[in-house]
Amino acid sequence: MTILLTVFALVFILRIIFMVYGSARERAKSHKINSKNNPKVSVVVAARNEEEKIQKCILSIQSSNYDNYQIIAINDRSSDKTGEILDNLAKSIKNLKVVHILNDSQKGNLKGKAGALHQGFLNSDADIFMVTDADCVVGKEWISSVVAEFQNDEIAIVPSFTLIKGNRFFDKIQAVEWVYMHTMASAGVNWGVPLGCYGNNLSISAKKYFEIGGYEKIKFSVTEDLALLQGLIKNGGKAHYKCSYASAVHTLPEKTFKDYFNQHRRWAIGGLGLGMKATIFVATSLFIWLGLLLTAINADWISFFVILGIRFFGDFSVILPSLLKLKQTKLFFWVFPSILFFLVMELVAPFMVINKEVEWKGQVFGHNKN
Hints:
- This protein is of the alpha/beta class.
- Helices cover 51% and strands 15% of the residues.
- The protein has a single domain, classed as Spore Coat Polysaccharide Biosynthesis Protein SpsA, Chain A.
- Helix 3 links the parallel strand 2 and strand 3 (96-101).
- It starts with a helix and ends with a strand.
């Protein structure tokens, strides 16, 4: 059993090294804001039934200190007052353009959010598309800090971090988790292995988007952000995962565990598009659980706590540098209880993908089905 436990521990330690070193290298690649670099930017926000949040989002974008941008808001078949709110905002915000999608005419690869974003991109003449969600707010330097990364002409896509605002215990767990997931995703980008990104803070070279045919040519996925990252990298584009407070967006946590579960089920189903990479990642977590189970059955409590310690301090070493970089030091206390929560959720994750239909914003999608 000792040999088996050693193998389990070494596999997980290799994962930690992969994540820590990869994310550190990715953080080191970031450029500083260059005032001389002033490409045109379109901030694209797809909104479906977001009447309570959309105005705050648009006003936060309007406060940007960047001087060469427009906002393109997509009212995606909303049945509430989202479209009306956007039209009223456009009367006073001169660089706000509203596009209304009135019927369910988008099919195939352009279903759902992917189709809405594609319409926004088609209505833009910008050099860079920056995407955020209607339930997010951004800072004044958000645009300029991300634009700095496109000084490198080879860059096709720049994912950036999302920060969660909330005071409940469950809110803090989600806040830690988002930073943790972004950090692991940034490590994957560094190694040329796209593991994920999040569409509420994603920026794309317009030229490279249309060179690959955009979402119209990318196989449909319930995680359209990951599909786009994979498509651009597969076609020779380079990515940089930016980690800075200026480039982060702020959003709200899921209010209930049911909403949280549905969100993660969608992510898990979309993650099936990673193929063997997803299997390997899940296996590394499974090894920790197998080690804990074996040591508990044999009452080998020293080994049990050694393995648990490897998991705790390994994950803490992954997330700590990102928390510091993002000025989220108040979350330090919440890292260890969050890791316990992650351990439990990892047992649930395989069962999330049994039913591959996903309901999102009142729409039902199947995994990678046209």
